[in-house]
Design goal:
Number of strands: 0
Radius of gyration: 33 Å
Shape: elongated
Helix content: 55-70%
Strand content: under 5%
Number of helices: 6
Low-confidence stretches: none
Oligomer: single chain
Distance between the termini: 78 Å
Length: 125
């Protein structure tokens, strides 16, 4: 059989057709052949979408999409909030310098750079 993806509406329509065919006395094997799906697929569909109507399935799909969109927005907002709160946020240093950072960067002007021989541990060797 050709592998295809079915929409929820197509699945519900095929399940409705299969229910009618089984009521007419067809076996599950015959029904699966007529609706062009495998038996495991048929049984999975029945388990997942058994009594659902097409309109309800369509609404469920819309709600799932909206839920995914809202989760994405929430994650982005939390990320923005985490960035604003993170220590060492360099994007905000220029806007309002933190008092502890005001003197930094001037150390090299008052003290010459250390060489390896000047290092305190190097003297012990």
């Amino acid at each position: 059989m050709k592998r295809t993806r079915h929409t929820v509406e197509q699945i519900i329509r095929k399940l409705k057709t299969s229910k009618q065919l089984i009521a007419q006395g067809k076996t599950v094997i015959e029904v699966c052949r007529l609706i062009e799906v495998t038996q495991p697929t048929y049984h999975r569909w029945r388990q997942q979408n058994g009594g659902m109507q097409a309109e309800v399935a369509r609404r469920l799909t819309q709600l799932e999409k909206e839920n995914a969109r809202l989760k994405k927005l929430l994650a982005e907002a939390e990320l923005e909030n985490a960035i604003d709160v993170a220590p060492g946020n360099w994007s905000r240093v220029n806007e309002s310098p933190h008092p502890a950072r005001l003197g930094r960067g001037l150390h090299h002007e008052t003290h010459p750079p250390h060489t390896r021989a000047d290092h305190p541990q190097a003297q012990n060797r």
